[in-house]
Design brief:
Number of domains: 3
Shape: globular
Largest sheet: 6 strands, antiparallel
Keywords: ATP-binding, Ligase, Nucleotide-binding
Distance between the termini: 40 Å
Strand content: 15-25%
Low-confidence stretches: 31-37
CATH topology of the largest domain: D-amino Acid Aminotransferase, Chain A, domain 1
GO molecular function, one term: ATP binding
InterPro entries: ATP-dep_AA_Ligase
CATH architecture of the largest domain: 2-Layer Sandwich
CATH class of the largest domain: Alpha Beta
Mean pLDDT: 86
Structural class: alpha+beta
Protein name: ATP-grasp domain-containing protein
Helix content: 25-40%
Number of helices: 9
Organism: Rivihabitans pingtungensis
């Protein structure tokens, strides 16, 4: 225990330096949505990952710009969607429908969808809007991958394949193209510590959605596959990642989370 404390003490200057980032983050909290959106757009622009490139997109801020982008992308992809250039939590995201009119979408409760004619009417009503993105709509399987990395080296990546329908659980999926994409992204951006990377299948293959410097909310399900990522991360920080003994990942495991009703005092 003393040796571990001594090693932690040796890292004290690095820890104190990290507090500057904590203070900066606290000051930036009121602007968090704008910062998150800008970082994601920068990720899409910089990403170099042939196994899972960013979704193709075009920015627009007028109806005229939208029309030009729509003609270009609709020739490549069977379905398109829009979202604000700066946004979080999916606010403003809509799939564009050309096979349903506005009343069908309204009366059928089709959330996060909009008719093309209705969208153009809204855009044409304003000379200019806050920048938005037109991009390919991804309707395939979604993957959430919790990773442990060390300055650009990927040590472990546990991928969960999410169901297309709720209530079916999630599958631990170790397909090689996802592992390859995680290694490439980790290396390109020099990722370190806990990382969560999200992917989704589209009509032309796997696409990278997000890269987050944290574990996901579903990491407990990932840990059921073998490696305890939170514990391994702490051990790597204290003793070095070279000494880590990472157990094999049990692939094909079906996992889930169950809410339990309790009596409150």
């Amino acid at each position: 225990r003393f040796r571990r404390l001594a090693r932690a003490y040796e890292k004290l200057p690095q820890t104190l330096a990290g507090l500057h980032y904590v203070a900066f983050a606290m000051l930036m909290l009121p602007h968090l949505p704008d910062v998150v959106g800008m970082v994601q757009n920068m990720l899409y622009a910089a990403l170099d990952c042939p196994a899972a490139p960013a979704p193709e997109q075009r920015a627009f801020d007028t109806c005229q710009h939208f029309d030009a982008a729509y003609v270009e992308l609709s020739a490549k992809y069977p379905a398109l969607c829009i979202k604000p250039a700066i946004s979080v939590y999916g606010i403003g995201f809509r799939r564009i429908r050309t096979d349903r009119d506005a009343y069908d979408i309204l009366s059928s409760g089709m959330d996060h969808q909009i008719n093309l004619d209705s969208l153009r009417t809204l855009l044409a009503a304003r000379p200019r809007i806050a920048p938005m993105l037109l991009m390919e709509y991804l309707d395939g399987q979604e993957y959430s991958v919790d990773c442990l990395a060390e300055h650009g080296t990927l040590h472990c990546a546990i991928a969960r394949r999410k169901p297309l329908s709720p209530g079916e659980g999630q599958i631990i999926d170790g397909q090689e193209n996802i592992q390859l994409a995680c290694r490439k992204i980790t290396s390109q951006f020099g990722l370190n510590g806990y990382v969560n990377i999200q992917f989704r299948q589209g009509s032309t293959g796997l696409r990278t959605l997000e890269v987050n410097p944290r574990l996901s909310g579903g990491v407990a399900m990932a840990c059921l596959a073998g490696p305890n990522l939170p514990y391994l991360g702490l051990c790597g920080f204290l003793d070095g990642y070279a000494a880590l003994k990472i157990p094999p990942i049990v692939e094909g495991l079906r996992v889930g989370e169950i809410n339990q009703a309790i009596i409150l005092p």
